[in-house]
Amino acid sequence: PSAGTLRPLSCELAPLSRSDGSALWKAGSTQVLAAVYGPMAPRKTSLEKGSAIMSIIYADHREHEALLEKVLEGCVCVDQYKRCVIELVLQTINDDGSVLSCAMHAAVAALMDAGICMRRLPVATSLVIGEDRLLLLDPDQEEERLLKTCLTLVSSNSNPDNLLGSVGGGQDLSLETVLACQDAASKAAPVVISFLRMAIEQKITRQSKTLLSSN
Amino acid sequence: MTAVTKTDFTAETSQSWSNTLKDLDPKVFLEKFWSKSTRSDGRLFSMCRRTRMTRGILKLRTAGSSLIQLGNTQVVCGISLLVGQPSIPNHGDLVVTLDHTECSIPLQSILMDMLDLSCLALGESQAWRLQVTLQVLENDGNLNDACLLAAVAALIDTRLPPTQKNSQTGRIEIIESSTTSSDDDDDEGALLKWKYIPVPLTVGIYVADDDDETFLLADPTEEEEPLLQGYLTIVVKVDKDSSNEDEKPTIVHIQHSSTTRGLKREDLAVGAHMAYGRYKEIRELLS
């Protein structure tokens, strides 16, 4: 894959029947499955916060749970689901690099499949820094292993200049490189958003056709 | 109840009033300070609390140790040693034991990257494994920075004991020193070799309700933490052999997440400059 392109995306909505919403997101060979349960009553009945709580369970990568929780808490309209818990369970089906971005997009697609209100959509972009400060978008596992400096940036669809989250590091990261990555991320974000829109539109047209064709 | 006029105000009354306000509505209490670009303990936004580092605090059974105090936050770190067969030949290993809910920085990868792991090799097929154990003694906010600093200070304090190979069993054994006094520095063992010293800075992100400005509060306390909408952590380094003071530090690790509208480019730049300033402070403390 060339430096500035994303791998082919694929989104399957509602692959699971038991959950309120689910999505299988693929970026190249990386696949992550997300399932949403909620909004539902919390197990611990005493809640200090009035608005909804996002509970993220990502057993393969516990270190990403905190970032996903914070970002999604800021994107979901938590004030509309007071004293509820929205549980999101993520599972890596195949890791071929950029797994955090894939997980973020799977989570967003699953939340949309569950019909949970969101005030903005987060878009994650993974990059590695190659030789001569060249930025490679959407690295696969081979690239991540060779080029140690990786960065994942989460921006919002409504305001691509603002970063909702970031994680990464390595040897040669300078402030200028981080800001250059942010520029690259803001260019790549609309691609993911329009793909997500297509996936949701397909699902809705398919559902409405089924309704109309019955007598 | 008598009306309290301005002349009735004593220092005790105003202290108890401010404590009551703090308990009733922490948001209003803290916003009173933050709107005037100061904080409840008198710090500016870019100032960290008083940082104290005590090395060699644990004497028995550790190869190195440290105690870090960031204000009231206290974390102790001990390094113990194991001998084993490494997966990469002529390289040592490092394992960190700490709950990820307490410290969200990936300590293991940063510490392994910082060290020159080949200095831990022992002979052909064996090497030292450094067991880094962190214990939070008191949490008054900003455990991320405290844990990383404690681990770094303990690694700097670590000395590897001299070893010999037992000719009968073929295993590496530590040479027991007959004297227990630590007067002679040369007998204590070799220091570790590191490529750079990573220095972290965590700032809290706060966006006021009227949504015009993003405040970055360095080294947040536990009192401030419930009101913050996110954190930005930057770990910086300067390569060891650069003697030029104007050398710009590079970022080893950056992470942030926030529930509000996010950080703009300017905010990231401010955060990075705060982190560079913190690097200079800590560098002086470590040397």
How would you describe this structure to a colleague?
The complex is a heterodimer of chains A (215) and B (287). With 215 residues, chain A is α+β, with helices and mostly antiparallel strands. Chain A contains four helices and nine strands. Chain A is globular and about 55 Å long. The termini of chain A are far apart. With 287 residues, chain B is an alpha+beta fold. Helices cover 24% and strands 30% of the residues of chain B. Chain B has five helices and 14 strands. In chain B, strands 1, 2, 3, 4, 5 and 6 form a six-stranded mixed β-sheet that branches. Chain B has a four-stranded antiparallel β-sheet with strand order 12-11-13-14, with helices on both faces. In chain B, strands 7-10 form a two-stranded antiparallel sheet. In chain B, a hairpin with an 8-residue loop joins strand 1 (51-55) and strand 2 (64-70). The longest helix of chain B is centred in the C-terminal third of the chain and has 22 residues, at 265-286. The chains are: A alpha+beta (215), B alpha+beta (287). The interface between A and B is medium-sized, with 31 and 28 residues. Strand 9 (163-173) of chain A pairs antiparallel with strand 14 (250-258) of chain B.
Summarize the structure.
With 215 residues, chain A is α+β, with helices and mostly antiparallel strands. Chain A is built from four helices and nine strands; from the N terminus they run ββββαβαββαββα.
- Beta-strand residue percentage of chain A: 25-35%
Query: Portion of residues in helices of chain B?
Result: 10-25%
Q: Counting H and I runs of at least 4 residues, what is the number of helices of chain A?
A: 4
| Overall radius of gyration of chain B | 23 Å
Write down how many β-strands of chain B occur, each being a DSSP E stretch of 2 or more residues.
14
What is the makeup of the main sheet of chain B?
A: 6 strands, mixed
- What's the β-strand tally of chain A? 9
Looking at the structure, what is the overall shape of chain A?
globular
Tell me the helix content of chain A: 25-40%
Mean pLDDT of chain B: 83
